[in-house]
Design goal:
heterodimer, A: alpha/beta, Rossmann fold, 6-stranded mixed beta sheet, 4-stranded antiparallel beta sheet, 29% strand, B: mainly alpha, two-stranded antiparallel sheet
Chain lengths: 235, 367
């Protein structure tokens, strides 16, 4: 059974239909990417899954229907979101940010272990643990946002454009870490404009265009698809 | 010297305790009895500022109508302990009711404004504050609930076991008046408020408030029920206001809508901003300064007479001018407040990136 199953999901802002019927499935342990041009509706779909905007249709996490639930309830069921633009708590310290990620957890020793794990994943965050999150560089903030999401021990991690606004070297680093996290068994849905990177990192891919899924399949195959190559890989 | 003080916290506490215990007598003997009243108001404003600080400082919700809760607490006290309705309940019964009523209204104000942030929230709360005041001003007919602009007088003073906190009493050969007794009563409530505000800040709820203040979307994604947590901030802050209102009514013995105008809300907000938003010592200092300063500036007239032989500018005009100037200078030289919190200090010391982010979250209305 799939971990996340979305059926005929629609998201509309007033009269504007950003997502017009998306079907998408993610199996346990998979790294799936959702690629598409700016304005294709990728982020809106992600927000719909997280309950940040109202989504029509069916969304299930395992056997549980999550469409219609408020965001905090969805988070408590095990979905963690790394929002577009990172959304770190700027005036709280790096450590406080990470602790906030474990807000719903009660197991103190488990939280401490996970904190060490995140610091192991991102040694830079350990060095700056007492610094205000808002004073970090863009790349460091992205690391923090990912680390914070991991602190909830999510069943599913949603990443919204983790490469946005970062220097190429930093993008490379972030993607190496995303691959590491996936290798540890965390299920990930990655939304990305940078199709090249996303297809290289993921196992399965969905291509979104004007609110609908155009293509989907194994990432390696899609990377060879002439239409994908022409439209998204610049060839 | 500060280091020395830090090494002996118990000594500092004992010294502070003794100072607080003798302060009204010290003040009365040196500055006169009118200053004991000022002292009482300092304590009252500390409670108010601590309450508003929960909403504005902790949760980041800009509330410009805070005085409405103060008014509700005061009017409830007047209704339940004065000849107006002929009800005379004891203060220990009325005060919690006032805090509860204000808290309920806090939720009523909070519920429709949940999706608003920053400027928009400020405008709605400002309107709410005015609505309450205008209601109090006009609810004298068809049924006389508030006695309109004339206000309600002869409100019962606080009395403990038959001992009224008003008039003159002979204690240990000294003549002691109401403001002295109220000082100790207010001090007890102030200390309790400080304790509660401190505990709240470091609680789970306090951390949730901080997260919402920084980024509401991310806070929800952490599993925080942003709706309930915001409503709780409004309710808690309002309850402090309601409590202070009840204390005010019993102390003054008279209330009217005029005491609860927009200026009061602004003044309490200034105390927080000036002292250091979100930081309890800063908020307390802000409340002390902004209560004492306008009173002290009344002496401008005397100084003029002493220096020039006659009063050139009416002290009442000059008073507010100097007050405004002091605020402007403060904000230029100490923008994070007199005693800023660790977090605010970081914000103002940080590079442009943070300022940008601050702007973005301040004007983020999507929520």
């Amino acid at each position: 059974m799939s971990l996340l199953a979305a059926r005929r999901v629609k998201v509309a802002y007033g009269g504007i239909h950003a997502v017009r019927g998306v079907d998408l499935e993610i199996a346990e342990g998979e790294l799936v990417c959702l690629i598409g041009a700016n304005g294709a509706g990728k982020s809106s779909f992600l927000k719909g899954v997280m309950g940040l905007v109202h989504a029509h249709g069916e969304i299930q996490l395992g056997a549980q229907r999550i469409s219609g639930l408020p965001t905090h309830a969805i988070a408590r069921l095990g979905i963690a979101l790394v929002p577009e633009g990172r959304g770190v708590f700027g005036r709280l310290s790096v450590r406080e940010n990470l602790e906030m990620g474990a807000f719903t957890r009660k197991d103190k020793t488990g939280i401490r272990d996970d904190l060490d794990k995140v610091f192991g994943l991102f040694p830079r965050l350990a060095e700056r643990s007492r610094q205000a999150a808002g004073t970090l560089s863009g790349g460091e903030q992205q690391m923090l946002a990912i680390g914070r999401a991991l602190m909830s021990r999510p069943r599913l991690l949603l990443l919204d454009e983790p490469s946005m606004g970062l220097a190429p070297l930093m993008v490379h680093k972030i993607y190496a870490t995303i691959a590491d996290i996936a290798a540890q068994g965390v299920t990930i849905l990655l939304v990305e404009q940078n199709a090249n990177l996303a297809l290289k990192t993921s196992q399965k891919a969905y291509v979104m265009e004007s609110g609908v899924i155009r293509l989907h399949g194994p990432s390696a195959e899609l990377a060879q698809d002439p239409m994908v190559r022409a439209a998204y890989l610049g060839e | 010297m500060l280091d020395g003080l830090r090494r002996h916290p118990t000594l500092v506490f004992i010294a502070l305790g003794i100072l607080l215990a003798v302060l009204p007598f010290l003040t009365g003997a040196t500055l006169g009895n009118s200053w004991v009243r000022v002292l009482d108001f300092v304590l009252l404003y500390i409670i108010l500022a601590l309450g508003l600080n929960i909403v504005v400082g902790y949760a980041g919700l800009l509330d410009l109508g805070y005085v409405a809760f103060y008014a509700l607490g005061a009017y409830l006290y007047a209704w339940l302990a004065s000849p107006h309705f002929g009800i005379h309940l004891p203060f220990w019964a009325v005060l919690p009711l006032g805090a509860a009523l204000a808290g309920l209204f806090g939720v009523l104000l909070g519920a429709p404004t949940l999706r608003l942030r920053g400027d928009y929230l400020a405008i709605v709360t400002l309107g709410f504050g005015e609505i309450i005041r205008i209601f109090m001003n006009n609810l004298d007919h068809p049924v006389n609930v508030t006695n309109g602009p004339q206000g309600i007088n002869q409100i019962d003073p606080v009395s403990l076991g038959g001992f009224a906190f008003a008039g003159r009493h002979e204690v240990l050969g000294m003549t002691i008046t109401g403001p002295y007794f109220y000082y100790y009563l207010f001090l007890a409530f102030t200390l309790a408020s400080i304790f509660i505000a401190m505990r709240l800040q470091h609680s789970r709820i306090g951390r949730a408030w901080a997260a919402i203040r920084e980024d509401e979307v991310a806070a929800a994604a952490m599993g925080i029920n942003t709706r309930n947590v915001k409503l709780l901030a409004f309710a808690m802050g309002a309850a402090f206001g309601g409590l202070a209102g009840g204390l005010f009514a019993s102390f003054q013995g008279f209330i009217s809508p005029e005491s609860f105008n927009l200026w009061e809300s602004i003044l309490i907000l200034c105390m927080i901003v000036l002292g250091g938003m979100g930081h309890i010592p800063g908020v307390i200092l802000g409340a002390i300064l902004l209560t004492v300063l306008p009173e002290a500036l009344r002496y401008i007239g005397d100084w003029q007479r002493a220096a020039l032989g006659h009063v050139v500018v009416d002290p009442n005009d000059l008073r507010m001018l100097v007050f405004g100037l002091a605020l402007v200078l403060m904000m230029i030289y100490r923008p994070a407040g007199m005693i800023p919190s660790r977090q605010r200090k970081r914000e103002f010391a940080a590079e442009d990136g943070v300022a940008e982010q601050e702007q973005a979250s301040l004007y983020d209305t999507k929520a």
